[in-house]
Amino acid sequence: xxxxxxxxxxxxxxxxxxxxxxxxxxxxxxxxxxxxxxxxxxxxxxxxxxxxxxxxxxxxxxxxxxxxxxxxxxxxxxxxxxxxxxxxxxxxxxxxxxxxxxxxxxxxxxxxxxxxxxxxxxxxxxxxxxxxxxxxxxxxxxxxxxxxxxxxxxxxxxxxxxxxxxxxxxxxxxxxxxxxxxxxxxxxxxxxxxx
Length: 195
Fold this sequence. Notes:
elongated, alpha/beta, single chain
């Protein structure tokens, strides 16, 4: 039995690698679209479970770890921007205010059942962004595949006034919660999790 990360995100790959666990990658093609009236927490949790289940069908007999990260402002979910104009609009909306980042994680057992799940919340506040800052950042291409159109560990680090909660959660995989989950199911030694 192997551990499979059900994501092609290089950020999640790096964060999981830092925990010292052996794994391989198999991404799902589950569409990340909220259902009508679905809350951000319910959407992220459902998306993580669906991604995990989809990969588990491809890799039966293995453990699968899947996650979904959403940015929330005014109860609205900001997913990955469709284009540069959408990225600019998202960044303008986040400018000068706080927002929430939710990451849902699902661990699928070798029998295909959800063995564990978590939903982690962090808060981020941006300083006021000028149109020039937004334009330069969007032109870099970095916002293209990021929830909320930014990478806190990348060029958007300078936008951040304050963070409350897990930084790895904001990047896309809450390491403390994932490590605890893997330890609970014998997929990570306790010593490795505390390193």
